């Protein structure tokens, strides 16, 4: 398959720059794979498509305010750090800009209580740094850090929490699992009261989710690795549903990748590991029956995952309809429910 087979035309003005208020008032495109019907609703209508016995799977990862701005000690040169992965208590992998103006041993100051020393440079522009700080690192990160919004969002985010799901719990992501941004506490309570089981799993979203595919053919692409975890309790609830023929509905592509990574013989294993699973057309889903997701970038691994569930031609046809209907696209955009 060619990467270009997953391209589509998107007017720039349809790329959402700000989130909708309230969260659940975004639009919802509903696609039924059996009837091929396309229905246009609002997200708060999602309850009409859920039923008692369903299992709704949420990713409870929390986005770190992982973008730091500082100055090189001595010269005052401006630097930007993007935190990728914690290696030890005070040691991180980061992307640093500008990449050539700091040598190992150089220090960047972010505030009076927070600085970082460059230890070494690795491949793909990744650097290893050691932070020096006074107090609690997470509190300093919350004070000095900025949300690592995707490059296609150019407007400043006024409220940090709008790039978090209302159920975010475990620090560790460089990007939000954006399909979950549409849920409110009230909507989740209503869903539970319907008899839908809400299950939390974990996948820390890496920056690789924003990296464009450079390969001409899909099969050549190597996915970035991300940490995931499925608890014994979550696995038990999901597996009971699979055995009884009840639906497992994933919220977001991160939940899909977690469930399918932990799948063995049609059931989910309770485990914590890293996954580089790449889901594209031809993939046979073991766990996921339905998906709530946003609209994804052209030629991205995420539109390929959606195409694996819907079929490539149908996915692109539905995306064309979404463009015609002026849906809002990407992280702060509208949602799609694939039944």
From TrEMBL:
- The superkingdom listed in its UniProt entry is Bacteria
Task: Describe the reaction catalysed, as an equation.
Answer: 7-aminomethyl-7-carbaguanosine(34) in tRNA + S-adenosyl-L-methionine = epoxyqueuosine(34) in tRNA + adenine + L-methionine + 2 H(+)
Subcellular location(s) of the protein: Cytoplasm
* Major subcellular location class: cytoplasm
A single cellular component GO annotation: cytoplasm
> What's the EC number here?
2.4.99.17
User: Which GO terms fall under molecular function for this chain's record?
Assistant: S-adenosylmethionine:tRNA ribosyltransferase-isomerase activity
This protein's pathway: tRNA modification; tRNA-queuosine biosynthesis
Indicate the transmembrane segments per the record: none
State whether keyword S-adenosyl-L-methionine applies: yes
Q: Which UniProt keywords apply?
A: Cytoplasm, Glycosyltransferase, Queuosine biosynthesis, S-adenosyl-L-methionine, Transferase
Q: Name one GO biological process term.
A: tRNA queuosine(34) biosynthetic process
Which family, according to the similarity comment? Belongs to the QueA family.
Query: Which HAMAP family has this protein been placed in?
Result: QueA (MF_00113)
Assembly? Monomer.
Q: What does this protein do?
A: Transfers and isomerizes the ribose moiety from AdoMet to the 7-aminomethyl group of 7-deazaguanine (preQ1-tRNA) to give epoxyqueuosine (oQ-tRNA).
Protein name, as recorded = S-adenosylmethionine:tRNA ribosyltransferase-isomerase
Source organism lineage?
Bacteria, Bacillati, Bacillota, Clostridia, Christensenellales
């Amino acid at each position: 398959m060619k990467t270009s087979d997953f391209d589509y035309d998107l007017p720039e003005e349809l790329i959402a720059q700000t989130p909708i208020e309230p969260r659940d008032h975004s639009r919802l495109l509903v696609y039924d794979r059996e009837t091929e019907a396309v229905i246009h609703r609002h997200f708060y209508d999602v309850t009409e498509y859920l039923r008692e016995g369903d299992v709704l799977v949420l990713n409870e990862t929390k986005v770190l305010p992982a973008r730091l701005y500082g100055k090189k000690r001595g010269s005052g040169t401006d630097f930007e750090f993007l935190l990728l992965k914690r290696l030890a208590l005070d040691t991180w992998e980061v992307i640093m800009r500008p990449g050539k103006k700091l040598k190992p041993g150089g220090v960047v100051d972010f505030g009076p209580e927070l600085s970082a020393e460059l230890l070494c440079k690795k491949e793909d522009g990744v650097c290893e740094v050691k932070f020096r700080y006074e107090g609690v690192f997470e509190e300093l990160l919350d004070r000095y850090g900025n949300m690592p919004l995707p490059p296609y969002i150019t407007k400043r985010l006024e409220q940090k929490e709008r790039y978090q799901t209302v159920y975010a719990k475990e620090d560790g992501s460089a990007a939000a699992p954006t399909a979950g941004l549409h849920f409110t506490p009230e909507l989740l309570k209503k869903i539970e009261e319907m008899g839908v089981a809400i299950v939390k799993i974990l996948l820390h979203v890496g920056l690789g989710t924003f990296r464009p595919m450079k390969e001409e053919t899909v099969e050549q692409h190597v996915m970035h690795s991300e940490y995931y975890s499925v608890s014994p309790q979550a696995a038990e609830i999901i597996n009971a549903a699979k055995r009884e023929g009840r639906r497992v509905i994933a919220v977001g592509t991160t939940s899909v990748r977690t469930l399918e990574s932990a799948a063995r013989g049609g059931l989910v294993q309770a485990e914590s590991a890293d996954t580089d699973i790449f889901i594209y057309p031809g993939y046979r889903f073991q766990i996921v029956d339905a998906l709530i997701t946003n609209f994804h970038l052209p030629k991205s691994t995420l539109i390929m995952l959606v195409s694996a569930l819907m079929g490539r031609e149908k996915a692109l046809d539905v995306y064309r309809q979404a463009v015609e209907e002026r849906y809002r696209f990407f992280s702060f955009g509208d949602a799609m429910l694939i039944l």
